[in-house]
Predict the structure of uroporphyrinogen-III C-methyltransferase.
Amino acid sequence: MPAGRVIFVSAGPGAADLITVRGARALATADIVLADALADPALQDLAPNARWTYVGKRGFEHSAKQAEINSLLVQAARDHAVVVRLKGGDASIFGRLEEELQALAAAGIDSEVVPGVTAASAAAALTQRPLTRRGRGRNVSLTTAMTADGELRAALSADTEVFYMAGRQLDTLGPKLQAAGWASDTPALVVSRAGCPDARASDHRLADLADAAPLHGGRPAVLIVGTGALPASNKIAVSPEIPPLKAPLTSQSRS
């Protein structure tokens, strides 16, 4: 049967103005938007004529099953000319993009992917901590601490390790990382709600990483370990609350 096309738009983390120009243009053409739970509601201003459906997943909370999302995506493409699948951060980084691309390909539906800002980049920019450093930070690893089977894993595989969705593992990751070979005094930076007006950052060592748990409890968080967690300058002070940037789109713009 005739089908439309699907555009995977990476919304970026947090504030609506972190979306790319290409992503904003794609939203403007949408007939329907299937959006992740963390997408800023202000992004609706970029797709005023589209119908919005929130289908995103939230860790440890009730959310749509992946098979249900795949089915909704295929059906939406059969009912509409342009479908935007709006994903937080960058769609290709822990966004379950592969499963949805496979579902569309199996149904013979055309698609494209618009890249975006991922949480690791937002956390690094917020705190002015470059993820790579000349001569001492040559590689970065992006990982999730929790496997699909619920097993907590840690490793030493790069100069800088960035752990996504780490908020609920902060009290147990320290010992795991030390057992994997990281020194107890390795710097660790935790940033929760990176890219949002209420972003929060805190510095630790692996030996006392558990102290970060109450500071970031209940908030989406990334953990940066190793070279990328070091301040680039002694003049940089990380505040528990970062003031919002002036931008044309904010989550309050619809109120």
